[in-house]
Amino acid sequence: MTPFGTRLAHAIEERGRFCVGIDPHAALLHEWGLDDDVASLERFALTVVEAVAPVVGIVKPQSAFYERFGSRGIAVLERVVEESRAAGALVLMDAKRGDIGSTSQAYADAYLDPTSPLGCDAVTASPYLGFGSLDPMLEACRRHGGGLFVLALTSNKEGPEVQHARTGDTSVAGTVLAHLRAANAGAEPVGSFGAVVGATIGDTEEDLDVNGPLLVPGFGAQGGTVDDMARIFGRASRWALPSSSRDVLRAGPDVGALRDAARRGNDAVRGLGA
């Protein structure tokens, strides 16, 4: 399988670096004039797929908003994955999974094995049971050409109590970034193992260049700007994937308006890392 990093580099070149979150939370369903039920979930999610998956390089469904409807919600998520990939977009499942041993392997099988109904191009993961707990996911990525985005420096106010904690001269986030740097060593044009780094983290002393992609939530409505990312991320911004959901999704339910919003987001970040 072609490594995820290679496929991502091609997607950025062909379609741009903007990542659209497909997050059908209840407030957005109501903004669209929809009920908070499975039929509305399906209408919302597949309308977004129709609008944005043909024009952006990567989409990011947030699994929790589908899981809350049980098995019927997961069935909708399977269609989001299938139809997004059929339209040419890479699919990053925002599931933030993390466990040990056979359970970690089961998550790898669910999200990174192409024979799985939820098989995606990449998945988000939590390293806070120790980075080695993610080994089954890393191995699945190598075997199937998948990608992994590991939580490193998030923008939520609770994050620093863990991520900024230090052992000697190294922070927890710095340790995660170092592991990713090692996993991506020698990869060209870019590695398949990325970090999740919030657009609104502020200045940091951490080295964010892991020779891998950076998933950057918080762009747009949450306050992150292109200038912020360029300043804070430096050289690492060349593989940054600014992600937004609300700025795009609020343009619905009109397909044309959604597509235009996605294109505007792509245009806004096109020069990042240049």
Automatic annotation (TrEMBL):
Orotidine 5'-phosphate decarboxylase domain sequence ranges: 17-261
GO molecular-function term, one example from the UniProt record: orotidine-5'-phosphate decarboxylase activity
Pathway entry: Pyrimidine metabolism; UMP biosynthesis via de novo pathway; UMP from orotate: step 2/2
Pfam families named in the record: OMPdecase
Active-site positions on this chain: 96
EC number, as in UniProt: 4.1.1.23
Stored CDD domains: OMP_decarboxylase_like
Gene3D superfamilies for this protein: Aldolase class I
Catalytically driven reaction(s): orotidine 5'-phosphate + H(+) = UMP + CO2
InterPro entries per the UniProt record, alphabetical: Aldolase_TIM, OMPdecase_type-2, OMPdeCOase_dom, RibuloseP-bd_barrel
Keywords: Decarboxylase, Lyase, Pyrimidine biosynthesis
Family that this chain belongs to: Belongs to the OMP decarboxylase family. Type 2 subfamily.
PANTHER family: OROTIDINE 5'-PHOSPHATE DECARBOXYLASE (PTHR43375)
Entry-linked NCBIfam families: pyrF_sub2 (TIGR02127)
Protein name: Orotidine 5'-phosphate decarboxylase
Higher taxonomy: Bacteria, Bacillati, Actinomycetota, Actinomycetes, Propionibacteriales
